[in-house]
Amino acid sequence: xxxxxxxxxxxxxxxxxxxxxxxxxxxxxxxxxxxxxxxxxxxxxxxxxxxxxxxxxxxxxxxxxxxxxxxxxxxxxxxxxxxxxxxxxxxxxxxxxxxxxxxxxxxxxxxxxxxxxxxxxxxxxxxxxxxxxxxxxxxxxxxxxxxxxxxxxxxxxxxxxxxxxxxxxxxxxxxxxxxxxxxxxxxxxxxxxxxxxxxxxxxxxxxxxxxxxxxxxxxxxxxxxxxxxxxxxxxxxxxxxxxxxxxxxxxxxxxxxxxxxxxxxxxxxxxxxxxxxxxxxxxxxxxxxxxxxxxxxxxxxxxxxxxxxxxxxxxxxxxxxxxxxxxxxxxxxxxxxxxxxxxxxxxxxxxxxxxxxxxxxxxxxxxxxxxxxxxxxxxxxxxxxxxxxxxxxxxxxxxxxxxxxxxxxxxxxxxxxxxxxx
Length: 422
Hints:
mainly alpha
């Protein structure tokens, strides 16, 4: 094979470079979380999370090599089979899995724990890409909307049954793929509107919101008094909005679990119970704010050293960046993630095959959701959801799943020109 045709000359090295930078920075920050100044601790020690994470990183390298060796057609040809296997694992974990932190989402093999729901994101991305690229799917047709949505709703439902609402929420990110492939804007606007109304209901008394909706609807009806169709739509919309407002109390009290209710309370007013349900968010914001412009320095974070922030190696890893590296370090991290996501979208748009393009947008949506929600919850903009920060949070399942998601796209992109000769 000629040098210019080598796979290594066709892969996107910018994306690979950003991947390794994020993984290394994540590993260093995991060490910063567990570092104890009073003890001599080796970053490579397997007794520490940093040493254990190094094993997962080594596993990621093996995964990368395997992906690069595989024929790029494998992912298209076996998309449904991979999806089916993961669905079976999601069912099995409900039956024989181990419950950890209230979620029955884990298979435990001695010291090794694997979470099938992390890999379900990759499998769903493949299946959605396969379905859209292999069928005459038109998302302006209701029957196609229903059929295609099942690929997302089935794993989402199984993950909800495991009690892992945070991971289930990630599947909302697939709306980006569906919208890119022709889903009417009505669904996106409706979903966003419902979310905004839900949040407003937590902040404002329901009676005031209800009166506001009625007044606004009345004004619209008066303006459109000669257009019966618009009047009907306005009245229907007002009834639906009021229905959402009136259902919030029921959802919070009878649908959400106590710890999920507390997370919403912490979002609305963490100061109401700073030593209880508001503790995580309050301490997280203190840690980030205490870093100032340039931070306290690597391994010098006091909030980190005295364990004020729970789950700081996983869900709240961003606190370590804010405290030890300040605004400047946080800016660099956010910039790297933006480069990662923009580059993924660029790769998706330049694909010659529909399968690769759709898969690329699924990857971009998943990374964006994790990035936005994780950082948002550490600064009090979103409720705590147990969603890891890609390549930074401690854990093998999440690291491996993100690695697979990214490098399958890199592999497909490296062969994008070959689809013309298939």
